[in-house]
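Feature request, filed as a ticket because there's no other form

It would be nice if the structure record came with a short human-readable summary line next to the tokens. Right now we just get the raw output. Example of a typical job, pasted below so the devs can see what we mean:
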Amino acid sequence: MRLLDSMLEYNEYFVKFEEYQKYKTEDKYPAKRVVMFTCMDTRLVELATKSLNLSQGDVKVVKNAGAILTHPFGSIMRSLIIAVHMLKADEIIVMGHHDCGMQNINTDLILEKMKERGISGETLDILQYSGLDLSKWLHGFDDVTESVTHDVNMICNHPLIPNDVPVHGLVINPDDGKVDLVVNGYDNIKDYKGE
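Raw output as currently delivered:
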């Protein structure tokens, strides 16, 4: 049986026996009024939220490879802006993690793997000649604390993020869930009045 077939078969069971009931929330808004930007690492699927006592319905979660905010007007930033302005998020958490696959990633190896999977050298050359520096674009980060601090600064200085929104920077250990504070967002908000 193919993976998708087995997942869809399970879904029939899931719906029939109302397994979804334990995941229901009051509405689409985060109960704790927070949005988290973190890495797509499989170890963080539940750990990122559970380590901070956040449950189903408490938080909006936005993910990408490495929790790297690469562009001030890209899809990650748009999601954070929508969460703040439309989905009642009053705080933002940026959570990087130790042992991230995007730290010190070998971009030459990625390009080789692309070729092995059928992406032609000609296609890669066309992208390079079109102005896309693939090595730079694929590069992750060198230091997780610096990467989180960079993301926090980009969000805090974004013209569409209100000045009264605390942006916190955290780094989690995927082995034991220990979270270290990198940036306390409350420190950047004069007279913060949140709970």
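Something like this underneath would help us a lot:
The longest helix spans residues 3-16.
The CA atoms of residues 49 and 124 lie 38 Å apart.
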